[in-house]
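Re: duplicated header lines in exported structure tokens

Our pipeline writes sequence and tokens for each protein into one text file. With two proteins the header for the second block appears twice in some exports. Here is an export where it did not happen, for reference. First protein block:
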Amino acid sequence: MSRGMLRDLQAVTAGRVYDRSAFVVVEPAHRDDVSAVARFCSARGVALSTLGTGHAQRPHALFNGGVVLDMRALNAIVRVDEEAIVAGAGARWFEIADAALAIDRAPPVLPTCLELSIGGTHATGGIGVASFRHGQQIDHCLALDVVMANGEQTTCTPGDALFLACLGGLGQCAIITQVTHALRPVARDSREYRLSYSDHAAFAADCATLADEPDVEAIDAQAVPDGRFQILVRREGPALHASHAAFIERRSARAGMHRDRPTKVALLPDTPTTDAFLPLIGAWDEHFVPANAAPDVTRAMLSLVPSDWLARGHVLLWQLAARGSPPFMPRPPGDRLALISVRAPTDAVDLTAMAGISEVAREAGGTRYVSRYRAADRSTWSAHFGAGWPTVNALKRRFDPQGILNGGVIAYEEDQRSEGQHG
């Protein structure tokens, strides 16, 4: 390794759902280092996984006895122009945003935690408060540089089978080392609103109609304690102040707060750093559901949520402009979806309640956002992927025939290497 940094790791996933030990951790300084490690593992059948900022709750980055690639040092901003930014997989989104905003551009969608890495969110899908308009982050990926399971380096672009297998692919088919991501212009003027509701029907109605407002660029809706709901909204554009009164009048609830601020970071609300954020969270689960089913699904989920979860966890309702489904990320049909996120406090994780919440989404035709927590056996995975299940198995066999990459997540039809085995 060019930095020669090998160290033991005792790792805990976000939410403290899994707690495991890796045999060794490698911190690559260049993609050639990634290739060298992949060749080593491939030759010996050693389990190999990747770690970004440690935000996911899946156990794949925590092999017992395997090798983990800590990708954070691959964080260079290679190039940025009006059309796109090129960055190493370990670059965090606040670094991406700062580089883009310096030339009055921004990624179409930013995560609510800017400490996440660009490689990590492309491997899991990436969603944020602008997804109602711009879809997922993977919808704006222009190219990926990856390292194959055998150590081969390649660049893949839209239309390539490997490109689609890597987007939202949980690192099952290759290791992302660099991302080319589209940018959009950003407005200089913006205005924020906090809308408060006591009535669920009014809350659900505004969640839907806000997405049709032409100057709205961010919507963050959530249930809050005492049976109330709130929506944080950001509008952008030159005519905001003149249209302020009319915007409020169109809402079924009046704004409890509003303020003006320059467009510095294209998301709301601001979130703490990973070190401050992760100790606060417990297990969370997220599901895509058809938009027209979202009000009923949200109401049913809230009936299963312990009361203290709203005070110290969260229940979020985000909308999503769906733009197709990569093979490893099946979504319900339709061009307008909702993502419902339920997060338990660290000291109050109730897996029975989480299972019930997942069942509510499934019965409504929903699918899981699989970066989040939920143990699943082979039959559950088969049902999750539906008609795409044979394709997922075929892609894994094609691009990772030894089954060494990021195991411990999907229970494939054909025998893959057991997690924790090593040569």
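Second protein block, exported in the same file:
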Amino acid sequence: MERGKGRNKERFGNARFITRLISSRIIPNMSRRILSPATVASTPQQLSLIEASDIPTSVQDADMTIDEAEVNRILKQLDEMVGREEVKRTLHNLVTLARTKQANGEDLSDTIPLQWTFTGSTGTGKSSVARLLAQLLHACHLISSDKMTQLRMPQTPSNTWTSYDIDQLLRETMKQSGQGLLFIDLDDIANSHIDVQWFRCKLTSLTAEMPGSYAFVIAVDDNRLQTSPIDVPISTSTIHFEDYTAEELIAILRQRLDKRGYSITDEALAELNRHIRTLCDNRSSGFANARTIKHIYIAVTSAAELRQNASPQPVITKEDVQSIKWKKLNSHRIGFGA
């Protein structure tokens, strides 16, 4: 503590420093030690005992100022995403707020939300942004890991799960997250009979019950919101993800091709534009925004590589685009509408 105080007097924060040191460093270190397979604890006293190894040994380990280099890297990656202007604005505002609170010597955990709701259709970037949000919250020392862990529901013959099943899966996933960000896509439990509000309350109670700090994002599809509205608590921040426009989807495809070093002829690009605009004009329940583009990308690049015998720099032609069996790709799973 003396080293921390002497190193950064103007932002030391006194009691706030101690509070954040305990919540952001000591308790997470203690939790990792207790959950380690090498640890055998037999009494409640041992499970609640802070050991010397749980306490940071250097000023750098105890330093809880915002990691500006990491924040700037994350924001740059965010800004490179196609579209998503509301999302970008929200996360940039989040960083501005965090920087202001830090400059004023205030505790970030009092104002920066750890509970988020992302609404929008499939393939609009909710999970991608959740990964960046996990990294941002970690760079602000609000969670102990920059890892995003998604809740995965096991496949069963009936695809139904009891409240006990979900409770146990949540606990296990939270442990796997290493006190990072938990991502829950409600489509994964769409066929269960668990009430959405029960699910949210259970998640909130578990974050209070389990040691350390956790963040979570609940992703809700627009169609589900229309049939079953969800009351969002005041403590939760909500971001809506609009469907991509045809122009944005074309830009996403070009971005993917450029990143992988593919060239494309003007005729091929015009053919792809025509197909993508048709898909956007006839959006059905099978349309999946960027996921649709992902499968178009796979199909067209596979055709080009097969035709050019795995050339290191294949060129996509109009014939490659036309070789795709568009009608056969009429599947809800991969995002092609009827």
